[in-house]
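Protocol step 4 of 6: structure prediction from sequence.
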Amino acid sequence: MGVIILFFALLTAAMLHWVEETPREGVPESEWPYATYFDTITQVGILLVSGYDAEPPKHPMGYLLSMACMFMGIALLALLTADLASVLVTAALAGKGHQRVRCRSHLVVHGWHHATRILLEQLLDPDEGVQHEVVVIDEALATPPFYDPDVHFLSGDPTEIETLRRASLQHAETAIVPLDGRLPELLQDPRAALSVMAIKAVNRSLYTCAEVLLPHNRQHLERTGADEVVCVGDLSQKLLGHVVLSHGSGRLMEELLTFSGGAQVYRVPLPDTLAGCDFRWLLRRLNRESQTILLAVQRGAEITINPKHRLVLAPGDQLFVLAESRPSDLEWLAPHDADSPSRGDRPTR
């Protein structure tokens, strides 16, 4: 901007000293358009904005300088527009991080760091088929790191009640508290505990998933009310043991847990029409009709994997299945009068 203003001043001086107007008959020299410095500034300003609406110079050098004025006017207008747009966008982004998010049935993620980015890539994977808005809270987040219509970035401390209310936590579906690798290891688990306590203070019934680093801190997270606690240390050690005893199991678990295509584990509710059916019957029927494998049943807090004895499914059970995509409807699997669960090998649809 300063360069353009300086060039404007130099053009004005050049027009004054080098461009001589041809005297008009009957017009005093004092009334010539370029007679004084002020009149020259006026004429050059008009040239910058509207071209030859000003009095055109008569000297050849004047035409060259006037063309330079018009090009500088275009550059000045573009620069002013860019600066204004930058100010408005910056103000909008800064305000967006501090405004109240208005959404429902969304996911709230505490902290923005490398682990959060990987988590969002999986949650927003279009192949997953789960449509959720996501609110990311981080006190060090000055501006959104990227734009996505389903992701809202909120600047603030995730352990403060007011920040969580601005994230509409009382209307959320799930809260996720991943470990913050930016903190020292001894502070990561206490920080997660404080976040869960703040979440439960705002919405006691909200399903909360938290991550802990040290196995002995799991009990502290559970006392705060976290519904599900994932211990990085426990998982890595147990997975390492499986890899040693069963070669290739590490790649298998990574494939199952990564939303990158192929078969994945999904949790789906048991339709009421399938209540009373036998686990083995449903396992065979799912595999035969939809190439889906029934892995386990969750009843309350208890999960039963591949039961050894006969297990009758009950209303409210949750099914863990291995499938290429999330099963959307299992009611069509319900047995008809001629197809009882005890004779589930007969294909019926």
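Step 5 (inspection) to follow. Strands lie at 107-110, 134-138, 151-155, 174-177, 207-212, 228-231, 264-269, 293-299, 302-305, 318-323.
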